[in-house]
Design a protein that fits this description.
Elements (H helix, E strand, L loop, with lengths): L2 H39 L8 E14 L2 E14 L4 E11 L8 E11 L5 E3 L3 E4 L4 H7 L10
Antiparallel strand pairs: 1-2, 2-3, 3-4, 4-5, 4-6
Length: about 150
């Protein structure tokens, strides 16, 4: 083999080695970047006193086939050693014992006691009072221009 041919093969080998090293470094950097971005997107770790975090909670209470109320929360947090849960972004719909109501209540957070079934809400609460359509027709009630009874 001539000296010029061996130099040519050496250059080709060096170029191939450089290409492979560049590809390897690129894959390594790309995976590190993806891992970094995923770490940023990950939700924060739960505090030490939290047992469970849940998204989307709905439960109702009723007597027989009649629903009395329905509670919907976008987030629920259970705490260690407490018989209560923190509900966030809460909407409560109250139907009444005979189904004659359809009132709604919306607030940012409530405390729900599991054993007693009590719900305590603090802060700003928005109320929407409304009778159901079946009750309105039965009473012959009229609404004013604002839709109030």
């Amino acid at each position: 083999m001539k000296r010029s041919e061996s130099a040519k093969y050496a250059r080709w080998s060096a170029a191939a080695a450089l290409l492979l090293a560049t590809l390897t470094a690129g894959v390594y950097l790309e995976r590190n970047w993806v891992a970094y971005r995923e770490k940023q997107k990950a939700p924060a770790a739960a505090p030490q006193d939290v047992t469970r975090l849940s998204n989307g909670l709905t439960f109702s209470k009723g007597e027989g086939t009649q629903k009395i109320f329905t509670v919907e929360a976008s987030k629920m947090t259970d705490f260690k050693g407490k018989d209560a849960s923190l509900l966030e972004d809460v909407k409560i719909t109250i139907f009444g014992k005979r189904g004659e109501r359809h009132d709604t209540m919306h607030t940012q957070s409530c405390q729900y006691e599991k054993s007693g079934g009590n719900i305590a809400c603090g802060g700003e609460v928005q109320l929407g009072r409304e009778k159901s359509q079946s009750c309105d027709a039965g009473e012959g009630a009229r609404r004013d221009s604002r839709g109030r009874l």
